[in-house]
Amino acid sequence: MSQRSALPRLSISAIIFFAMITLLGVYFAYTAVQGPSGILRRVQLEAETRPLVQQRDSLQAEVERMRNLTRRLSDDYLDIDLLDERARDVLGVIRADEVIIR
User: Where would you find the membrane-spanning parts of this chain (predicted)?
Assistant: First the structure.
């Protein structure tokens, strides 16, 4: 009597199908980690973004400061103290009652 094994034999097409599915799974997993939109690229972009956000915030604060100074020297709203300070700084003029410390 011949004994048959208890396990059924897989056909070549079934083996090829499972191999293709496994390769596709490995490809998608690799792409999810290493690809151009993968996890590692996202971490790298977040690390590059942090200093740029800080630089943007400091530049926005500087723009706001300059906007405030410009408004204070405009025709609509004139800050005499600021105008006096800027004129003396540019012209190099001091009042008689002032002392300059360098």
Answer: 12-33
| Torsion sign, CA atoms 77, 79, 80, 84 | negative
Residue 101 phi, psi (nearest 5):
-115, 125
Q: Where are the domains of the chain?
A: 13-91
What is the DSSP code string of 20-67? HHHHHHHHHHHHHHHSTTSHHHHHHHHHHHHHHHHHHHHHHHHHHHHH
50 burial via Cβ count (<10 Å: 0-12, 13-18, 19+): exposed
